[in-house]
Amino acid sequence: MLVNEAKQANGEEFLTLVKNAISVLENESKSDNKRELCIIPPRGEAIIVGDLHGDLENLISILEKSKFLEKAERCKNQHLIFLGDYGDRGNYSPEVYFVVLKLKEMYPSKVVLMRGNHEGPGDLLPTPHDLPARLTEKYGEKATGKIYLELRNLFGKLYNATIVSGRYVLIHGGFPGNVKSINDLADASQKHPKQDFLEEMLWNDPEENIKGFEPSHRGAGKVFGENVSKRVLSLLNVKVLIRGHQPAENGYMVNHNGKILTLFSTNKPPYSIGKAAYLQVSLSEKIENAYQLTEKIVSI
Predict the structure, then answer these.
(1) 106 CB contacts (<8 Å, ≥6 apart)?
(2) Which fold is adopted by the domain 2-299?
(3) For the chain, which ranges sit under pLDDT 50?
């Protein structure tokens, strides 16, 4: 049903959905002093989805395999968390945005939409950024201007980080430098571009066998070592960083001796990885490292 809606929606219907999602996110922000940070208690179940990049087929497969729609109707503490990068590169960017925004409209307290580097601010646009072209193909040039403007407004309302208390922190890219408190994550967009927190949260990658930070080949953000992960995880009182941003051969990878789990939920071109994956995990279960999460990963 959601697929058919996404494929058949016209530009005006898509625009209305984006505006509704913005309203929902603004209301959440007003009721939460942490603004760009979503805090979830360690109860119930979470389905955590990595980068999709216009992969509608895998998104629908995740919804079907995880049975999220059924669980969301009957379970109070059911969460569906997207780590960002919904569009660009794939063939169905508008449809993927439509489905995730429709899910947010249907289950506002159960769906968490995070910001990826492909939803970043205007001064940090990724390459390629073919979302405008995909919107034009689907909705026409006249409608695309309004839709894209509202999507850019939406991007600024998405969560930069999610914390499952005592368990996990979720960030699309990685840990920024000079983090002194949780507020540095919660206020990252407001402080951009004077401070680099937002850029690094969206663009950073973990690297083995280094200390601190080094320049990134991406042209934005940095790479960071295990000592950074150890410090920030301790500061936030959590055990593991769950992130997206990097393709991984089996749809996931573990870094920094179990301190980081990367999820990647598309294996469609231009990515040539064998499998994609998502995580389905009980939030009440205590874990000490990311290796314990690998048995909770579902391949697609």
Answers:
(1) 72
(2) Purple Acid Phosphatase; chain A, domain 2 (3.60.21)
(3) none
